[in-house]
C-alpha cells in the first residue's frame, strides 16, 4: 500500500498547491462538468472523501451503497455551495487525510464496501487518486488560458502517477463491458502505453488478440470521459479492442 498511498498524497498535494494560486473570484469559474464551478468540484471531492473515510471505518454495505449515483454525486455540490472557498478546501483536506489514515491500516487485498460494489483497498486508493486527477483536469482546464511560460511548467502535464489511472482503467474493462451490455473477450485485452518520460506501461495478457496502443494520457482521459476516443491517436487491434475504446470507464 505504501506506493499507492504515497502517490495518492502527492496527487492531492499537487492539486492543493495549484488551488493556492487562485483568486477568490476564480472559484466561481465554470469547469468542463456541466453546471459545476471550481468551488463545486472541490466540494464534490470533499464530500466523497468523507464518504470514503466512513466506508474505511467499517460502515455496513447498506449505508455505503448508492441507489441513484447522480443524486448522490450532487449532494456534495449542494452541501458545499453555502460554504466559503476557504471552508471548502479545509473540508477536502480533512476528508482526504481521514482516507489516507484509514487506508494506511489496510492490506492491499482487504475488501472495502463502496458505492456500487466492494473493492480491494489497493483499488480503492487508486480510485481516490483517479478522481483527484480527473477533477484536477477539470479545474486546470477552466484556467488553461492563463498557462504561459515553459512547456514543462504546464500544470496539465502528466506525471508518472498516471500509471495508477491507466492500471485502474484496464482493471475495470470487464465491468465496463458488462455495464455497456457487451461481452468481454475470453482472451482479455492488452493495453500497451507510453507514459511520461517515455515510460512503457503494459497491462493484460501477452497473448491477447485484442490490443490497444498509444499514449497513456489519452487512454486515461477517455477512461474518465474527458476526451473522446475519436480525438486521440490510440490504435485498436481487434473488434473488442475497438469496443474497449468506446466503453472504457474508470468509475
SSE layout:
Blueprint: H1 2-19, H2 38-56, H3 61-64, H4 69-80, H5 85-103, E1 111-112, E2 119-120, H6 121-142, H7 162-171, H8 173-179, E3 189-194, E4 200-203, E5 210-215, H9 216-223, E6 235-237, H10 239-247
Parallel strand pairs: 3-5
Antiparallel strand pairs: 1-2, 3-4, 5-6
What portion of residues is helical?
40-55%
Pick out the low-confidence regions: none
Rg: 18 Å
Strand arrangement within the widest β-sheet reads: 4-3-5-6
Which fold name is given in CATH as the topology of the largest domain? Answer: Four Helix Bundle (Hemerythrin (Met), subunit A)
Shape: globular
What is the annotated CATH architecture of the largest domain? Up-down Bundle
DSSP summary, beta strand count = 6
Q: End-to-end distance, in Å?
A: 21 Å
Task: Give the SSE order as H and E letters.
Answer: HHHHHEEHHHEEEHEH
Label the structural class: alpha+beta
Mean pLDDT: 92
CATH homologous superfamily of the largest domain - what is it?
Answer: dinb family like domain
CATH class division of the largest domain: Mainly Alpha
Strand content: 5-15%
Describe this structure in words.
With 251 residues, the protein is an alpha+beta fold. It has two domains: 2-157, Four Helix Bundle (Hemerythrin (Met), subunit A) (Up-down Bundle), CATH 1.20.120.450; 166-247. Helix content is 51%, strand content 9%. It has helices spanning 2-19, 38-56, 61-64, 69-80, 85-103, 121-142, 162-171, 173-179, 216-223, 239-247; strands at residues 111-112, 119-120, 189-194, 200-203, 210-215, 235-237. A four-stranded mixed β-sheet has the order 4-3-5-6. A hairpin with a 6-residue loop joins strand 1 and strand 2. The model has no long low-confidence stretch (mean pLDDT 92).
